[in-house]
Every structure is written in C-alpha cells, then in structure tokens.
Amino acid sequence: MHYLAAMWDGGGTVPVEVGVVRRLLARGHTVTVLGDPTIAPDLAGTGAEFRSWVRAPHRVSTAREDDVFKDWEVLRNPPALLGRLRDRLVTGPAAAQAADVREALATRPADAVVANAALLGAMVGAESLGVPFAVLSPNVYSRPAPGLPPFGSGLRPARGPAGRLRDRALTGLVDRLWNRGLPDLDAARAGVGLGPLPSVWAQWDRAARVLVLTSAVFDLPAELPDGVRYVGPVLDDPAWAEPVEPPAGDGPLVAVGLSSTWMRQEDVLRRIVAALASLDVRAVVTTGPAVDPAEVPGSGRIAVVRSASHAQLFERADAVVTHAGHGTLVRALAAGVPAVCLPMGRDQRDNVVRAARHGAVVGLPARASSGRIAAAVRQVLTDPAYRRGARALGARLRADAAGTALVDELEAVARRRVVPRPA
C-alpha cells in the first residue's frame, strides 16, 4: 500500500516520524513524505519519496531566522505560545496545508494519509478526497480529555473536587484560546466542500485512528475517545547523530541532551557543565544542531559535542540530564537510566510529571543553579530507587517499542477496516 505522510520540522518529532516511515517501508509499503525541506536529509537512503510543502508555511533551512514558529520568543507566556502555534501551524495555514495535500494525492494517490497531530489542514485535505487518515501524536496525548490536566501545563493529576474544578476551568480557558482558530479551520473545510466543526480539535474525530507514540503506562490515565490507540514509542536516533566515545576513567558516566532546536539553552548547558565539573563523574554533553559546542566549554572529564547516538550513549550512562523532551526522556528511561530534568517549555513539564510518578526522575526548574543541578545528579546516582524506577518503566517502554501495533493500525486504516465516524 502507499501512504502520504504529512510532517513538519518540529525538531525532536522528526526522528520519531521518520521512524514511522521506516517501519512502513520495512513492512513492504511505499511512502511519500510531504514536509519541510529540512526533513529531506533525514529521509536519505530510506527509500521514501519526498516533496516539499508549497503553499503551507515551512522551513527552508535550519537557520534560526527560517524557523516558522520561533517559540523561544514567547516561551514564558503560555497564552501567547499557544496562539502562535495555533496561528502559524495548527489552524492559520489550514487551507494552504489542505491544498498541498490534495495536490500530492492528485499526483500520486495514496491508500491512507498519516498526519502529524498539529497539521489539521492536512487532515482536511485527506478528508475532502475521501482518503482515510490517521493522526500521529509523537508524544503524550495532547487533546483535552477528562482526567488530564491541560497539555503543557505541567500539572499533576487532579485530586478531589478542587482539583477537578481546576482542570475544568483551565481546560475551558485553553479551549477558548484554541477555538479562536476555528474560523480559519472552518474556512479551509468550506473551501473543499466540507461542513463546519464544533471545535478545533473535533478535526481529530474525522480520523480513522489517533495513534499516540508512547506507552500508556507512561502517560496519565484518562477517558479517551474510542479511536485513540497507544502504539508505543519510536526510539530511533536522528539521522545526524554520530558515535561518541566517552572520556576515559572509572567515574559514573552522565549523558546530557537538551533540545535539538533552539530554546536559548546555552546558559542552561553551561550551568550543567559547571555542576558536573564539581562531581567525580565523566560526561558527554550534546549541544544539538542549534548550539555551537564552542559556546559550552568542557574539560578532560566532560566532552562537549554537537551530537551523539543516544541509543549507544544511554546504554553506558549512569544518569541523564535533559530538558525532558519526550524523545530524549523516553530513550533514557527505555535504557533504564534515571534522569535529572530541567524543562524549558512545550510539553516538557508534562513529561517530568509522568516520569516522576514512576520514581525515575528528579525535576528542577530550568533556572536552577549549578549547585542544585549537582545535588540532583548526585541524588539519582546514589539513591538506587531512581535506577529501579527507571528500569521498571524502561522494560514496559521497550516492550511496547518492539511491538507491531503501530504498523498494524496503519495497515488497518489503509485497508479501510477502520472508517471515520460520520459528521
């Protein structure tokens, strides 16, 4: 069967979604990826076809000025951050995304469309042509649902009537902010002959499946719609990751990985290096493609590099220090390694809450001093409870990652065994 995968360059989401493409290809299917040109190198050698967004906004290079989203400008203002995501990615460009998807399907018909969870316009394009589509959520479940605090809030699950009231109030506020984009989404739908929706995220209800690329045991328990499936994490490294040999010595090995996109993380990285320099440890610090390693001086015991294979590095690590992006944190836990987390925005505080329920991480504010970071690293290295928590959770994550649920569900969608609910 042939699939059209609609993607955007969301940094850490790219290796996850490219991993989905690889699994479809390994099962014998063909895939066309519609995405930002910056994704094309990640697909080299996979056998997938690539075509760029034309009408929809997209990155043309990895330079900061070419970032369509530029969320670092509003990270400390959650309503502004949500509005920017809505207007620049989710609903604002919906008509342009739909047009690009329709053109791609006219050029090469597909049995199914696989759309990133944020690309509602891509879903509109598939729906308008009667092509079944699946929503791909590359992290935890993000749509408002009973039992879940608002996505991105970093709140723990509600307890008692006061907690449930808190969630209802905050979810109502978040819904109102999202639904300011409903006119754009409905206009995109009307432009291709589809009717209006009651809310922005009701577009997901038109999907054959919503596939959440993590383990149910990692996420919070909630009442989810019938079409939602947890299909396990994709633990693939990004294409640009390279093998790295840790510094020599007998001290514990600490691996450091923050965001692969720019979040003004240079100062955080320097404080982490200062913290590790005060401990009797070895470390490999990865800056990612957004930060020059020269901006984060290391030492003989602390190697600072642009990239490293987390799959190889985490197997040898005794602890990980991370911003708690879903991809990095889940790869660490899947290796059975406890983590110190310094969330900087997006979904990162949510991920810390989830991992902390299993006793596998210590969470700190991103502004924590080097002394506090050093104390937290010492804590996860010396208290065996953190290692036990990480290993127990990691075993579940690895089992789900090794399963076939992801591709099985996508094949069922393409065979039209699962159909969208009627409008």
How would you explain this protein's 3D organization?
- The structure is a single chain.
- By secondary structure, this protein is α/β, with parallel strands linked by helices.
- It folds into 2 domains: 243 residues, Glycogen Phosphorylase B (Rossmann fold, 3-Layer(aba) Sandwich); 148 residues, Glycogen Phosphorylase B (Rossmann fold, 3-Layer(aba) Sandwich), CATH 3.40.50.
- The protein is 38% helix and 13% strand.
- It is built from 14 helices and 13 strands.
- The longest helix is centred in the middle third of the chain and has 19 residues.
- The two termini are 27 Å apart.
- The relative contact order is 0.13.
- The mean pLDDT is 93.
User: What is the terminal separation in angstroms?
Assistant: 27 Å
Strand order of the largest sheet: 3-2-1-4-5-6-7
The best one-word shape is globular
Low-confidence stretches: none
Major β-sheet annotation: 7 strands, parallel
Average pLDDT works out at: 93
Name of the CATH first level of the largest domain: Alpha Beta
Radius of gyration: 21 Å
Helix content: 25-40%
H/E element string? Answer: EHEHEHHEHEHHEEEHEEHEHEHEHHH
Q: What is the H level of CATH, i.e. the homologous superfamily of the largest domain?
A: Glycogen Phosphorylase B
- How many domains comprise the coordinates? 2
CATH topology of the largest domain: Rossmann fold
Indicate the topology.
Elements: E1 2-6, H1 13-26, E2 30-35, H2 40-43, E3 49-52, H3 78-90, H4 94-107, E4 112-116, H5 120-128, E5 133-137, H6 160-178, H7 182-191, E6 209-212, E7 228-230, E8 253-257, H8 266-277, E9 282-286, E10 302-305, H9 310-316, E11 319-322, H10 326-334, E12 339-341, H11 348-356, E13 361-363, H12 370-382, H13 384-402, H14 405-414
Parallel strand pairs: 1-2, 1-4, 2-3, 4-5, 5-6, 6-7, 8-9, 8-11, 9-10, 11-12, 12-13
Helix pairs in contact: 4-5, 4-7, 8-12, 10-13
